[in-house]
């Protein structure tokens, strides 16, 4: 069964890329939903135009880029040359993930905008991303919401509490520094790793805390 990965319009497309790379490297299958707003963010942050008719080529270009925007940082050819990824258009409300009978392990929304958070919390289902998240909750499956915004308004905080009450895991895109980050990619990978931790997906994206002070200053 696949993991559904939803990418909303919040800034933070490198977080989504890191999660997708880790899932594919770990042998997981992915159902990908890219919102219309996130295409504008992706274009702004990477220069990549994500096109429905050429999604596999565009996804390959996206995942090959590091958090600094430089192309060909990662080799993702082998992962994307398989059928491990299935793409669904955000406007396709008849897509597989729109139904509870469609088999899936759960859903990761990364990054999650405040508009996306509100839509899922209120059950609006205005596009496939929101509908798939609502289905994930009603079926009792894992839903991880990696909210990326600051500061957070009271309204958004109430929406996040509602998602927590409904069984979702709320993971703010808040990198930590105890893992010994030396590059922007390390900070991105920490957030992506915490998203995967919340979903119970094994990975090696960051150095874990061992209870020993000073670990961040020593070689990994």
TrEMBL record:
It catalyses: dimethylallyl phosphate + FMNH2 = prenylated FMNH2 + phosphate. Residues 2-198 form the Flavoprotein domain. Its EC number is 2.5.1.129. FMN binds at residues 9-11, 35, 148. Pfam families: Flavoprotein. Keywords: Flavoprotein, FMN, Prenyltransferase, Transferase. It is an enzyme of class 2 (transferase). Dimethylallyl phosphate binds at residues 178, 194. Transmembrane segments: none annotated. HAMAP family: ubiX_pad. Flavin prenyltransferase that catalyzes the synthesis of the prenylated FMN cofactor (prenyl-FMN) for 4-hydroxy-3-polyprenylbenzoic acid decarboxylase UbiD. The prenyltransferase is metal-independent and links a dimethylallyl moiety from dimethylallyl monophosphate (DMAP) to the flavin N5 and C6 atoms of FMN. Belongs to the UbiX/PAD1 family. This is Flavin prenyltransferase UbiX. The gene is ubiX.
């Amino acid at each position: 069964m696949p993991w559904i990965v939803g990418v909303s319009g919040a800034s933070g497309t490198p977080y989504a890329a890191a999660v997708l790379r880790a899932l594919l490297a770990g042998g997981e299958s992915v159902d990908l939903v890219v919102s219309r707003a996130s295409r504008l963010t992706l274009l702004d942050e990477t220069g990549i135009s994500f096109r429905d008719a050429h999604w596999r080529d565009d996804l390959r270009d996206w995942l090959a880029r590091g958090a600094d925007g430089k192309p060909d940082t990662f080799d993702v050819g082998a992962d994307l040359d398989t059928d491990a990824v299935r793409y669904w258009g955000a406007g396709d409300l008849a897509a597989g993930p729109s139904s509870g009978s469609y088999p899936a392990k759960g859903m990761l929304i990364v990054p999650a905008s405040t508009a996306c958070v509100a839509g899922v919390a209120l059950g609006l289902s205005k596009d496939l991303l929101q509908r798939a998240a609502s289905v994930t909750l009603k079926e009792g499956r894992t839903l991880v919401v990696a909210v990326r915004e600051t500061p957070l308004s009271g309204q958004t905080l109430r929406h996040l509490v509602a998602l927590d009450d409904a069984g979702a895991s709320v993971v703010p895109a808040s990198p930590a520094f105890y893992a010994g980050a030396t590059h922007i990619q390390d900070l991105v990978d920490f957030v992506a790793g915490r998203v995967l931790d919340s979903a119970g997906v094994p990975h090696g994206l960051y150095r874990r805390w061992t209870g020993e002070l000073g670990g961040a200053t020593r070689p990994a």
